[in-house]
Design a protein that fits this description.
Elements lengths: L1 H11 L6 E5 L2 H4 L18 H4 L2 H6 L1 H17 L4 H12 L3 E5 L5 H4 L5 E3 L2 E8 L5 E3 L19 E5 L8 H13 L2 E5 L11 H7 L3 E5 L12 E3 L3 H17 L1
Parallel strand pairs: 1-2, 1-7, 2-3, 7-8, 8-9
Antiparallel strand pairs: 4-5, 4-6
Helix pairs in contact: 1-10, 6-10, 8-9
Bound molecules: ligand BV8.
């Protein structure tokens, strides 16, 4: 069954097929990054939804920065896994390939992906609350909490999208366009509950794309997916890649 499904999907992946991939925290799970809603998704007694909000930052910027500093410490120790690496290879193989991620861990870029639509920002970037400029910051641990803008002294915030905040309009437009354009939409390692990201596979399907889900657990998207691989990203993506290589050799 799995081998046939892998073969069927690989046979759909011609070089000129426009492909879009939406990834979530699950693709980084095998690298050791805790997911949001799985075990280890908690931090002290808090949930992500309690801390990743402008209200939480307003109320206690030090606590929110401590959480991000802890996550940055974790993410600094982990490496991309074969799931990330396969997607970086596919970007080079398929002329029309869009990688859309909800993740802020930077692992797709570390794996070699160049064109990444980061829907929810990036944990390795800060933004000045006064001037708005975005800077890279890879200090682990942070030199001071909360960090301050070196040019104006105002407090910095993580350059990520919190619950209740709008996503960057350009990034979101690129994600919608890629979802409408693609003929295959892979949905890898997401519980498909956070919007507007969770609407992208629906938009793709409505535009005529086939949706392929890769997730050890079923999600609200499973019923809509044309293929649903009950497996880990680090296993299924390399299996698809091996089949692709086999087909191009034959
Ligand atoms: C917005 C950055 C307009 C910060 C994040 C009701 C309906 C629709 C929407 C809403 C609603 N109520 C509220 C909303 C809006 C809200 C939302 O969607 N809430 C949800 C919880 C219902 N959305 C927003 O607020 C968004 N903004 O809508 O703007 C607006 C403006 C003003 C007022 C209202 C609306 C902003 C959302 C962005 C939030 N920021 N991250 C940070 O990370 O610190 S979201 C956060 O969750 C991460 O980005 C994460 O990626 C994302 C989604 O989670 P997943 O990636 O799916 O991770 P999760 O742990 O859930 O699942 C992991 C999956 O992997 C599981 O399925 C597991 O089985 C699987 N897995 C595990 N191991 C593996 C694996 N898969 C493959 N391989 C493995 N080895």
């Amino acid at each position: 069954m799995l081998a046939e499904e892998i073969k069927s999907v690989a046979e759909l992946m011609d070089r000129d097929t426009p492909i879009a991939v939406l990834t979530g925290a699950g693709i980084s799970a095998e690298s050791g990054v805790p997911t949001f809603r799985g075990e280890g998704g908690l931090w002290r007694q808090f949930r992500a939804e309690d801390l990743a909000t402008p209200e939480a930052f307003q109320r206690d910027s030090k606590l929110v920065w401590e959480w991000y500093d802890w996550r940055r410490g974790l993410m600094a120790k982990v490496k991309p896994n074969p799931g990330h690496q396969t997607l970086a290879r596919w970007e080079a193989r398929f002329p029309e390939f869009a990688l859309i991620t909800q993740n802020i861990d930077g692992l797709h870029a570390q794996a070699g992906s160049k064109r990444i639509i980061e829907l929810h920002g990036n944990i390795w970037k800060t933004r000045c609350l006064a001037e708005g400029q975005v800077s890279d910051n890879n200090d682990v641990p942070l030199k001071e909490i909360p960090p301050r803008c070196p040019s104006c002294g105002a407090m910095l915030r993580p350059h990520v999208v919190w619950f209740g905040e709008s996503l960057d309009a350009d990034e979101l437009d690129r994600a919608f366009a890629a979802s409408r354009r693609c003929r295959l939409m892979f949905v890898v390692g997401t519980s498909a509950v956070v919007h507007p990201a969770a609407s992208l596979p629906v938009i793709a399907a409505q535009a005529g794309a086939l949706v392929i889900e890769i997730n050890p657990d079923p999600t609200p998207l499973t019923a809509e997916a044309d293929f649903s691989f009950r497996g880990k990203a680090g296993d299924i993506l390399p299996l698809l890649d091996q089949q692709l290589m086999k087909i191009s050799r034959d």
